[in-house]
């Protein structure tokens, strides 16, 4: 049985990165200023991307930075700027009781899942991080090999979604 | 203002402490990553259920999708590094998330133009 400090030094990158990503994720939800929340979201996605690099999945990590940390956050910040609020908006649910209920439910969810995680012996060979030097090459071969059909479907879906977004956001009112 | 900030910092420190305490008692890397994924998922669920601003709900959904992605990539790296099924799935999830963010922006804009509000309580025009 290792002590907590030994466990920490087994994998210090994980602990530092996950502490930052959880702090920023909570910050996104409790920060009053929405633009600042958007910037915290960039930091959260960035640390998650670093976690992917630590998991030796460099291609997914790079896509995470490109798509999430830049692309999706940019879309959200656009949404923020286009719907600028004149009055100060309440951060969370107005009444305290609902807020506390939501917090209790999510903490209970975490507690149950964490107990299930720690209480069981996992049968997967998950003790060692396995390395594969040709990660990106394999992903490319898979995407155009066994996953060619979903890959093409995703491209059609993205096209349809973007055209749909343009049509929905066009400047005419729903009610005349 | 100062009291509010202190309360928020206390909440963050308590939750982070709970997470780190649980994580330091896990001895395999895969379990730690699943725990990180669980924590982010719970945070996302909290934001999804308690926020009133639609844009903050959108941010919570992105956090939820990221939690799932961490899970997929962790299992892929620890169990299945040669076939990388989990990583391919994570890439598909990212593509869907991009499409979803674009559509959500369009819907939010369309409703904002009509009702001048981003409060989820006002988004009830589909009700009878």
How would you describe what is shown here?
The complex is a heterodimer of chains A (176) and B (128). With 176 residues, chain A is mainly alpha-helical. Chain A is built from seven helices and no strands. Chain A has helices at 4-10, 12-30, 34-54, 58-82, 96-119, 135-143, 148-169. In chain A, helix 2 packs antiparallel against helix 3. Chain B has 128 residues and is mainly alpha-helical. Helix content of chain B is 80%, strand content 0%. In chain B, helix 2 packs antiparallel against helix 3 (54-79) and helix 3 (54-79) runs antiparallel to helix 4. Chain B is flat. The termini of chain B are far apart. At the A-B interface, helix 1, helix 2, helix 3, helix 4 and helix 5 of A face helix 1, helix 2, helix 3 and helix 4 of B.
For this structure, the quaternary state is heterodimer
User: Which chains have the largest interface?
Assistant: A-B, 98 and 88 residues
Biggest β-sheet of chain B: count, sense, barrel?
none
**pLDDT averaged residue by residue of chain A:** 84
Structural class by SSE content of chain A: mainly alpha
Q: How would you describe the shape of chain A?
A: globular
Distance between the termini of chain B: 42 Å
Helix segment tally of chain A: 7
| Topology order of chain B in helix (H) and strand (E) letters | HHHH
How much of the sequence of chain B is in beta strands? Answer: under 5%
Uncertain regions spanning at least 5 consecutive residues of chain A: none
* Percent range of helical residues of chain B: over 70%
Tally of strands of chain A: 0
The average pLDDT value of chain B, as a whole number, equals: 87
How much β-strand is present in the residues of chain A?
under 5%
